[in-house]
Amino acid sequence: MPTRGFREDDAEKARVMSGDVVLTVSRNCGYAAYVATEPITTTCASNFVRVLRFDATQASSHYVFHFMHRAQFRASLAPFIRGTTMKNLAVANALAQVRIPLPSIREQCRIVEVLDEAEALRAERRASLVQLDLLTQSIFLDMFGGPTAVLSRWPVRQLGQLLDFMTSGSRGWAEYYAESGDLFIRIQNVQRDELVLDDITHVDAPHSAEAERTRVQAGDVLLSITADLGRTAVVPEGLGAAFINQHLSILRTRALVPRFLSAYLTSPAGQRQVLGRNRQGVKAGLNFDDIRALTVPIPPHELQCEFARRVAAVEKLKTTHRASMDELDTLFASLQNRAFRGEL
Q1: Cβ count near 270 (within 10 Å)
Q2: Average pLDDT of the chain?
Q3: For the chain, how far is it from start to end, CA to CA, in angstroms?
Q4: What's the maximum distance between 2 C-alpha atoms anywhere in the chain?
Q5: Which UniProt keyword terms apply here (predicted)?
Q6: What's the pLDDT score for residue 6?
Q7: 222: three-class secondary structure by DSSP
């Protein structure tokens, strides 16, 4: 936890206490948090946030938090945000235009109870998704071994000896961006052994050998090679035409089951190698020689396939949980809107 010094009078003004609402006013402006319990030690807010404290005879701070914890509230602050590199909220002007419906304190507390229960359900679902994310690595470690065992239990080869094809993406594709069309996979779409298409970019891809070189195929393993190194994902069947940007590499092999290779590179043993070969310089990065030199275990093909089947079952569960999470998010947004229209 970062610390900084305060003069005594400034510290008292910035002190965070139970029941306060804390609002971000720099960088990502307009996000609110509720202080449910008294901090164990004296805690003060930085100049990136403001501590808001309310007259308890008129407003429950927890109720006000729920009002502020909405996309509509953040949108209402947008006209009062200034700056490009560092965004700052004109706090006094922004809050002066906010109008909060204030039913009786008893009714406010009832609304808080309903919204808290709905939020608790969302938190449980998010926790379940986190556990499912961890399950894949647990299955890997159980089947193939930990950081040391995985490289001693099985035959090993350098990755370069196992690859049929390797390339990285091209620069300068911004000119091909489009509202719809082919997919353009960027580093933010490749997470830890997972392809995430929530924030996908579309392109009108050129018909060229350069574009064809960076087109992905089902079963390709994508590896991040700059910035946040070592993220991986497997290209699924049925993705359609898709291309990668310059921060990613395509690893194509018939010698390993793609799902196994992706999980290995994400495992502690794989990450240790990837980060160990990081060429720091001006910014983090791996070149093709670094990738080819990675040591990879080769368990029996049948065992790799069994691992892939188990992971597919986990992915199916995750899909179900995400659909449930989306439904809960929609329900929660509806409850929020009804609550502050007096319809709950």
Answers
A1: 27
A2: 92
A3: 39
A4: 73
A5: DNA-binding, Endonuclease, Hydrolase, Nuclease, Restriction system
A6: 58
A7: strand
